[in-house]
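Known limitations

Structure tokens in this collection are predictions and should be treated as such. Users comparing against experimental data should check residue numbering before alignment. To illustrate the layout, the record for Type IV secretion system protein VirB11 is reproduced below. The input appears on top and the generated tokens appear beneath it.
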Amino acid sequence: MEDTRELKCAARNYLSLKVTENCSMNDLLHDTLRATPDRIVVGEVRGDEALALLDAWNTGHDGGCSTVHSSSAMLTLRRLEQLVSRVSVTPQQETIAGAVDVIVYLRRKGTGRIVEEILSIDGYDGEKGRYITHELK
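Generated tokens:
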């Protein structure tokens, strides 16, 4: 799913969906769940679709991926909190920790990108107010 065509998928069995004037990312996410997909992939999360995507990832599907712009792997979690806060006054850290297993942070280098960090998300400690993480790279 994407609002601008940029994903390239080599899989043989996939369905590409694009946001239109009459069909939002939230609409696509809602409809996709009815199709029982193996994976849910969103080109870039940058709006109020963040909560719908996290909810979709928490419904027992085998996984998914997306991109989020931030300045580090840990700040990606904060960015998701910020995006979710646009549509929910209830803090969603546990939802985020339950939906996101790994963050791969890429940094630009020259004309390409390199993997700067890989962070595993193991949960959220509500008492300490922090994500439980460990670096894989």
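For this record: The mean pLDDT is 89. The first strand starts at residue 40 and ends at 42. Please report discrepancies through the issue tracker.
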